[in-house]
Design brief:
179 residues; 6 helices
Amino acid sequence: MKIALDVDGVLADVIVSWLNYSNSIRPHISKNQVTDWEFWKKFDINPFDFYSELSYCWKNWESLPPTEENLSSTTKNLSTLGQVDIVTARERSTDSFVKNWLNYHDISYDNYVSVIDGPMKADLDYDVFIDDSPLNAVKFLENNKKVILYSQPWNQHISNHKLHRITNLSEAIEKIKSY
């Protein structure tokens, strides 16, 4: 079993750090207001600014919170089911920060795979994808991939009988065992 595990929004709650930064320079936005993948559009935030600010947040990787407690033991348990690779879409300049964060939080994984654009993940050879992006989820489904969607405010509108929604990573273990 080859498992693709996303970072931002699944392991690292980077949006919390971005909101802290954004709220210091713009009108206040709460996480519950982040209801769309491209939410920055409704707040008139330039996409270049948003993505460069996300990268800036990763430079301060020590302050990025995990999405949930016990990710170390959960990813160790996930690794007993097969090969677990970190599969992430990001600027290459942040890869070292992400790897530092993963190491700091003792996240178990076999390989680190970085792509330029999220939907490109669907072209990779994995049996199951654990991700939070609604755009990626749609692409995975189009490519007949198994999708476990990590529930976040920005993916609540996605529903498909072929995907499984989870609220914590340990739920993915039971689902993968059933595949």
